[in-house]
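Checked the freezer inventory, then went back to the computational side. Two predictions to log before the end of the day. The first one is the construct we discussed on Monday; recording sequence and tokens without edits.
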Amino acid sequence: MSAAITIDDGDRETIPPPAVPQKADLTAWLGVAAGAIGSLMATLDISIVNSSLPTIQGEIGASASEGTWIATSYLVAEIIIIPLTGWLERVFGLRRFLLMAAILFTAFSIACGLSTSLTMMILGRVGQGFTGGAMIPTALTIIAMRLPPSQQPIGTALFGATVIMGPVMGPLIGGWLTENFSWHYAFFVNVPIGILLVILLLVGIPKGKMKLDELVNADWLGVVGMVLGLGALTVVLEEGHREQWFESTVIWQLTGVSLLGFIMIGVGQVYAKRPVVKLALLRNRAFAAVFGLSLILGGVMFGTAYVIPQFLASVADYNAMQAGRIVFLSGVPALMMMPFFPLLVSRVDLRLIVGTGMVFLALSCYLDVTLTAQSRGGDFVVTQLLRGLGQVFCMMFLNQAAISSVAPEDAGDGAGLFNAGRNLGGSIGLALLATLQDERWEFHRWTIHSTLFSNDIRMQDWLGQQVMTYGGGPDGLAATIRSLDAMVMRDALVMAFNDDFMALTIVILIVSPLVLFLRPLPKGYHAKAAH
């Protein structure tokens, strides 16, 4: 295997073997550490607010449904920026681009921590998403540039650990900071990490030249189209339920904007010298299967990381720290399995591993459809461990499938689409799960009420006991009715959460056959990074 690495930057430039020694030196590993820290910080902040959402919503005056935007806006911005990172790297140079991203990410984190309104928070989260998303795929670029082929599996495993651990560590760290200090520190914690990241980037990444001519030749139709198409689509998904879907003029307008954006992307695919996103890769059956599976994986990862803390807070009365501990359990299998990744990827059929992961994900969601009003964190232990095992099997090996199913010169585009697909699935999943939960909560509430009859002897006996408990008279009757409605709403909410998990189970099972279209890795294949 040649030690030469080819960087696709529009014009092919081959770096001779001496540029990448057989063993990386300290500065190279510092560069890899910078990439890992950057991607960890970016993925961590996807979910760091999840367990703190009830507290944040209360302090900035946002409703529960509006609060989902605090998580969704970050994901939308990440989805838009991830496919653009290859182009931005070429324009500014890798080190300069990452330094700008790290400094701006830290600044936007401070803005989020100082937010006093929902608008200010969402603007800060969008800024975090744009700058943080840039640090996810570039971590793989650093691995490919700074490590020799023999050491790239270590770097790839390290990257995989950050991508998986970030979303599950987020609720735990956010919860601990919220309980022991305040929710503001869930954002301020990025300040010292950002300073460390800047130092590592300065030491570990060599200087590069800017290529501002790339701005002139860029696929601007594709760039603008992605912003309009993906941004408007997510707003439609998020606001559709509250706006009564297509009964709303706003939803129709946003749908038109989204459609226009996707048309612009399509035109760019045909006429641009180098499309900003190479969607032609989706014509490859194996890669299309990877992309479809990545959508579902993102929906499950980010969806459950949002739903479980919400259930524990609203039904089990858990604080942010307690909920974060339960979410973190899904990261334990990732830590345990990561050392075995280089061995498994070269010896076990890719389709078998990913298929097993999908089975674990479906089973973990199915086991959670039996939640009751008495369920507590302990009821999620087994399912969270199963879910974590499924995530590590799918995430690590689908990343390799994305790279190996396309030509070497398209590996960077394949990895970018895979990461964008995961985040797009997470954004869609969050929006749809929140909408489903609202609709089913209302449905179950009135269904339960319709089964309560005033002439039922047992109901009359219970009402009588409750009225006496509250002191009798009109005030006691009113208190009893409020108590009854609260019980109904709680049970209806639990049933709505169960519907969320059942929907996830069904979708996973429907998409799982795509595993059969994955392309097996070549014999003797070694894990590698996209470059």
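The second is the one RB wanted added to the comparison set:
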Amino acid sequence: MLARRTKRPPASTRRSTIAAAGLVPVLLVALLAFLQPTIFTEARGLLFDTYQRLSPRPFRDAGVRIVDIDEETIRRMGQWPWPRGDVGALTKAIADAGAASIAFDIVFSEPDRTSPGRLAALAERQGAPAAQIAAIRGLPDQDGRFAETLAAAPAVLGLFLTADASGAPVQPKAGFAVAGSDPGASLNAYRGAIVPLPALQASARGLGFVSLRGDADGIVRRVPLVAKVGDTLLPSLSAEALRVAQEAGGFVLKSSDASGEVNSGRPEAVAVKIGAAEVPVTERGELWMHYTAPVPERVVPAWKVLEGKLPPAEMQRLFSGRIVFIGTGAVGLRDLVSTPVADRELGVTLHAEAVEQMVLQDFLSRPDWAAGLEMAALLGAGIALALALPWLGALRGALFAGLLAGGAGGGSWYAFEEKHLLVDPTAPLLALLACYLVATLFTYVREERQRRYIHGAFDRYLSPDLVKRITDDPSQLELGGEVREMSVLFCDIRGFSHISEGLGPQQIIGFLIAFLTPMTDILIARRATIDKYIGDAILAFWNAPLDDPDQYRNAARGALDMAARLDALNADMAGREDWPGTVEIGIGLNAGPCCVGNMGSARRLSYSLIGDTVNLASRLEGLTKQYGVRIAIGAVLAAQLPEFALIELDRVRVVGRERPETVYALVGDETVAGRHEFRTFLDGHATMLAAYRAQDWDEAERRASANETAARGYGLATLYARYRALIERYRADPPPPGWDGVAQLKEK
């Protein structure tokens, strides 16, 4: 009987299989593009951000100015909030110069703290004579005078929109007429507002909201022009400033079914008419922003106006017929937002740029046909590539795919640069890439099993040197390890559970990224290998997989650098919603023999280390909280760092170990250790410890008192408070015979 011979599929079948394999990812990407998951919208936003950075809107003077209450203004005029008389003087000077409208990116929701009523009440509480109190009450009311100034000026006041129903009801200065069906259901909706004082609100000619809402990544790509509070439509500060400047009576909100446009479902906002300007908006009533690069001539420091540093002719040139926004750019007052072209931009600048676009009629837009065009490009290019790849092969297929990708990307760039249209090529590009990769993989039957095994076994090696070493010698993928002298670091954020309670999920992620990234950079720069992240904690080590003859000093300097970087982070990130005040860390450092190598199972390996040295490093990190220091190190490592500033903390028995360990605080490098005052303190500290362990309580207390001021300078206030408490306790209740001065710790 003849054996059956397996036939090789004909070429046409093989090509059909490759083409089908290429079509599968194209269709999957098309499905994702239709469903629009968050990752697609985020990628689109980042792409359009890149376009704006490459080609920001060219600045043309549209008659918009920003008067900035900056640092120099605060230095000259005094701290904010100012008396309303000073704000009124600023308003009057700008109005007298002929401003068309003056919009405040400030909400005057509270009475002036220098008003006569408040000052009289304060004087009365302090027991001032009745005549003085009456005289104070007779002074002109600052809020009343400011209201009079507003009434004589083309002023627009700001208000905050809130998600709760608190605050006073809002009475807009101008109403909205709706062209077409009511699109209110598609607009951004709020439940309440924080509004200016009634007297100020009544005197102003305009009232607009200043609230800006970024996308999921916090970047403001669109500025709302209209929003809803209850059933009331409200204009933004920029829209209201433009209306007042034109002396227009109201707004017209155009719906998607107006003027013969097709309504594909519920009506949506498509445009807002403000006087002579018609502005295209998204369905939420938002204006796509096309930002300029920084423009210094747009901004006038407020102190120059208040101190009369600008001659009348210059005031006329700057403000006559202009739309003027007044905002606060001083540190501590500024309202900072992220934009595609700036990580930190003043919110008032966004309002000003929105008006510029409306005046110049220079808009970005994402037309409703863009999604259809993108889907057509995805399917057309993807199918063409899938059908062509079996005939073209890998190299020519890559060239063809590159040509199609260039057409999609180039067309998107052309639409942005020349037509100011936002057309997203991300999904077509992703489909082309996925199609090429899948189809190409199907054309190759020979794979490097060895390399595939390496990459399958090692999900991620944090050290590039380690990856190269394993690639060069795959035998090291065997389970097991080697014993090496190593330095180990544990770092943990103090009170992270409490911090987590005050942050949302996205804020927690942002906080951890902001913390872990610079700390990781420091450790890698000091030649550390990052073993793992355990929530907010970091485990790192030195002297593996590659030898590091300077491992002890690298470990010490890395810990000191982390402490210094944290201080800088606390200063730089102050005030950010995702940075919870002052963050503190504890770092445990230890050195000794460890078993390091590939550990885990036969299916998944992890390059890690174990041993008593690692356990003690973890315990030392826990001791930092009890002893009030940032960096605690073990005796073995301390012996390797004679030139560093080390201070003995205690002799302790940690949980799980019978042998006592002398623990040190690392407070500085060689520079600190070489200072005379440090050596003097170190001698006094050693004398205090000797007296304490000799049960000479009077001498120990005297030495502790003498050293306490210097101890605070090295971050040892908690340590000295601990010893003073122990001295008092043992003086009243002496320790048992045989006491050796070793602290027995009950917690890890």
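For RB: Residues 358 and 563 are 49 Å apart (CA to CA). The two ends are 76 Å apart (CA to CA). Let me know if you want it refolded.
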